[in-house]
Design a protein that fits this description.
Strand content of chain B: over 45%
CATH architecture of chain A: Sandwich
CATH topology of chain A: Immunoglobulin-like
Largest sheet of chain A: 7 strands, mixed
Shape of chain B: globular
Distance between the termini of chain A: 34 Å
Number of domains of chain B: 1
Strand content of chain A: over 45%
Structural class of chain B: mainly beta
Helix content of chain B: under 10%
CATH architecture of chain B: Sandwich
Number of strands of chain A: 11
Number of helices of chain B: 1
CATH class of chain B: Mainly Beta
Number of strands of chain B: 11
CATH superfamily of chain B: Immunoglobulins
Number of helices of chain A: 0
CATH class of chain A: Mainly Beta
Oligomer: heterodimer
Amino acid sequence: DTAVSQTPKYLVTQMGNDKSIKCEQNLGHDTMYWYKQDSKKFLKIMFSYNNKELIINETVPNRFSPKSPDKAHLNLHINSLELGDSAVYFCASRIGTSGSRETQYFGPGTRLLVL
Amino acid sequence: TQLLEQSPQFLSIQEGENLTVYCNSSSVFSSLQWYRQEPGEGPVLLVTVVTGGEVKKLKRLTFQFGDARKDSSLHITAAQTGDTGLYLCAGALPYNTNAGKSTFGDGTTLTVKP
């Protein structure tokens, strides 16, 4: 009965590799997000999709490419991984975008370590 | 430039003490949320404040939104070890400027010792 799930939970990989992180929500929400949390715990938004359409695209290297096959899934593919990509990546969902006071539900995070 | 600044960044207190965490900005927000994040987990919403001057209580936690909607505070009375965690505030700019994006503060790490 997990609301927002992410896979994998841990990801250790070499510099230069390409990897994907997957996210699924079973809440029936229209909007999904990817956040990056660095070692200082700062949580920064990367992307947001509403009904499979990209609506927020922060200043993120184009090595990061989100993809939403349907409104319940939002995946993140990272090409040519760099040391600075090491962080915890959180997926989140929200019922819509018309009210930013709506609750965001976060997944458990994917801990990425690039060696 | 950090849009939302939280203070203090780290706080270590004894069980039973009171504490206040602050979230400040020069921007006006349409709403502000407080989250708590435990180690190894994602943030979990505690409260949303919308109206300037609004005060909300959640058991021993009291949240206040500044009159000008630029700042907020979280006060915990008689802290317990279970309150330990990272507290994050998140402000939402008006929808027509940001498509419902929330900007997070830099967090306050609270440790409550038994």
